[in-house]
Specification:
Layout: H1 2-9, H2 12-23, H3 27-56, H4 58-82, H5 86-112, E1 115-116, H6 119-145, H7 150-182, H8 194-226, H9 230-242, H10 244-255, H11 259-288, H12 298-315, E2 319-320, H13 322-341
Antiparallel strand pairs: 1-2
Helix pairs in contact: 2-3, 2-8, 3-4, 3-8, 3-10, 4-5, 4-7, 4-8, 4-10, 4-11, 5-9, 5-10, 5-11, 5-12, 5-13, 6-7, 6-11, 6-12, 7-11, 8-9, 10-11, 12-13
Length: 342
């Protein structure tokens, strides 16, 4: 029954498109419709990734889900750059890293219960996030001290971005090689073909990107109607919405008992945002609008580092436990409170 409801709910996507481009509905209506439309799309991405993982294993499956799921995040950020909203971009990137590590990983642990995780892969990716935060101090500290202007900050952002992208390529290749060596099995009976899984992943991702665009353009009006700050909207609402695919997909997969794949999705996504999406947006930004220095605020870098450090401690022994998931989600609630107070 639940699956039938989710398949039927995919019809919300064309309804959201009609509301935006034909009816020209108000921002609040558009926000609600697009947010609801993202729920079944997130489920479809999770379902297709789960089926693809039958052929590839958990490591590659997590990489696929994070890659497809982060496409909306990249598109949302580029739209914000073109609209001249650099703080929204940096805030959404921060919120994406933090929410994937704390909220998604924690929710997946709660839904999946006790189980084994691939600690070798997760440790590497979390340490990479910590390394990315350290590198981002290079353009951020001068911004705190107001010692460099915008162009100078972007000039030092370029080499930092190149180093992050190079690290992403090296780590991804190494991680996929590890999983290829460790995971060799046949797909279960009744599993989708790899082609079908990838086609549905692509369709769901493209649709999710379109819905996310609608939601972004309605966020400011929605936030104003509720009296929310631009920073809070960026770090919490935009981040959660932009990563709806990973959020929903990881929890659904964990609930089905595949906690290894679910944790891989959560951590792979946060790592991709930190060392791929952020530098890619910075390097592309002059082509779509003003250049974007990766000069994050103190609270942004602090919460990213704290989230990665705590998650590293939680997964260090290679086990997932419900109470640890509760701890991560509770900490995310605390981070949201901090963002609301800033």
């Amino acid at each position: 029954m639940a699956r039938r409801i989710l398949w039927s709910s995919l019809a919300l996507a064309p309804v959201a498109f009609l509301a935006r481009y034909v009816v020209h509905a108000d921002p609040t209506t558009l926000f609600v419709l697009s947010a609801l439309a993202l729920i079944p799309l997130a489920w479809l991405i999770g379902e297709a990734t789960d089926q693809a993982a039958e052929h590839t294993g958990a490591g590659v499956g997590g990489f696929l889900n994070a890659s497809f799921g982060n496409a909306p995040e990249l598109i949302i950020a580029l739209f914000a750059v073109s609209d001249g909203l650099p703080e929204v971009v940096r805030g959404s990137l921060t919120g994406s890293v933090v929410s994937n590590i704390l909220l998604v990983l924690g929710a997946a642990m709660i839904a999946g219960g006790d189980g084994d995780v691939d600690t070798r892969s997760l440790r590497l990716q979390l340490v990479t996030v910590l390394g990315a935060v350290a590198l981002l101090l290079i353009p951020s500290v001068p911004a705190w001290r107001h010692s460099l202007d915008h162009d100078q900050l972007y000039a030092i952002t370029i080499p930092v971005s190149i180093v992050l992208l190079a690290a992403y390529i090296v780590i991804t290749v190494r991680n996929l090689r590890i999983h290829r060596e460790q995971e060799r099995h046949e797909p279960r009976a009744g599993a989708w073909s790899m082609r079908r899984a990838l086609i549905l992943l692509a369709i769901a991702t493209i649709t999710t990107a379109g819905i996310s665009e609608i939601l972004v353009h309605s966020l400011r009006g929605f936030g104003d109607s509720l009296g929310l700050s631009e920073f809070f909207v960026a770090t919490v609402i935009v981040a959660i919405v932009g990563n709806a695919a990973e959020h929903g997909g990881a929890v659904v997969i964990a609930h089905r008992g595949n906690i290894k794949l679910a944790t891989e999705i959560a951590i792979s996504s946060s790592m991709q945002v930190a060392v791929f999406v952020a530098p890619a947006i910075a390097l592309i930004s002059p082509l779509v609008g003003a250049s974007l220095p990766l000069s994050f605020r103190v609270v942004e870098l602090s919460t990213m580092a704290a989230a990665a450090a705590l998650a590293t401690i939680v997964i260090w022994d290679g086990r997932s436990r419900r109470w640890e998931g509760v701890l991560l989600v509770a900490l995310y609630g605390g981070v949201v409170a901090v963002y609301a107070a800033v």
